[in-house]
């Protein structure tokens, strides 16, 4: 396969995608609102389950369109590179992209090594924003068996583990100065069931009535 064949394949795929984007999909008509498509005066009075199938098909059509638009952008980018004479050269390292890779993916702009590095970096950049607030993360504040006196994740876990527990056992190695009522929420909780039974008055003996 040569560059002319690759160009013909890219142009044919481009025309197919443009034709597909111009017409309505079989699953949903995205050129109209969902209300018009379903011939409803309003969707506010409908339970979401009543239009669940239609909503699913509409979402699938949106996903197909987004995929086609992204593919079309990659094809146009490859065609511009052909016109500029830079097609087949890695944009990052400048080395030639193998013909086998171009035959499998005509829109490739990077060699295999640079593409792998690019995808790894992209995954790193698309992490949840919450991770910036939780930095350095829970795994970074666990200093077990280290010369570290600061309050860390291990101490937090031990506090949670001791919650509402009565440290009456020897394995509570850090609680030697606490009494048995540590962790009790209410004064009533210190009363055992046996103590409660012992303080009850004796029940009267049942005697059947005599007639």
Automatic annotation (TrEMBL):
Signal peptide: none annotated. InterPro entries: DnaK_N, YteA, Znf_DskA_TraR. Pfam families: zf-dskA_traR. It comes from the Bacteria. One of its GO terms (molecular function) is zinc ion binding. Residues 85-119 form the Zinc finger DksA/TraR C4-type domain. PANTHER family: GENERAL STRESS PROTEIN 16O, RNA POLYMERASE-BINDING TRANSCRIPTION FACTOR DKSA-RELATED. This is TraR/DksA C4-type zinc finger protein. It comes from Alicyclobacillus acidoterrestris (strain ATCC 49025 / DSM 3922 / CIP 106132 / NCIMB 13137 / GD3B). The lineage of its organism: Bacteria, Bacillati, Bacillota, Bacilli, Bacillales.
């Amino acid at each position: 396969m040569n560059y002319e064949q690759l160009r013909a394949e890219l142009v044919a795929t481009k025309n197919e995608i443009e034709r597909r984007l111009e017409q309505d999909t079989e699953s949903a008509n995205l050129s109209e609102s969902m209300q018009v498509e379903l011939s409803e005066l309003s969707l506010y009075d409908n339970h979401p389950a009543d239009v669940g199938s239609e909503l699913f098909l509409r979402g699938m059509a949106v996903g197909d369109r987004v995929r086609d638009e992204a593919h079309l952008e990659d094809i146009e980018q490859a065609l511009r590179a052909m016109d500029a004479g830079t097609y087949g050269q890695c944009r990052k390292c400048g080395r030639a992209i193998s013909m086998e890779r171009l035959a499998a993916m005509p829109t490739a702009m990077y060699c295999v090594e640079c593409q792998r590095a690019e995808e790894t970096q992209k995954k790193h950049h698309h992490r949840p924003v919450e991770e910036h607030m939780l930095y350095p993360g829970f795994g970074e504040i666990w200093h077990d068996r280290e010369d570290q006196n600061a309050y860390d994740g291990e101490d937090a876990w031990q506090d949670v583990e001791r919650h509402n527990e009565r440290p009456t056992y020897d394995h509570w190695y850090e609680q030697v100065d606490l009494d048995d009522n540590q962790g009790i929420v209410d004064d009533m909780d210190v009363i055992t069931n046996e103590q409660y039974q012992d303080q009850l008055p004796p029940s009267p003996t049942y005697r059947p009535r005599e007639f």
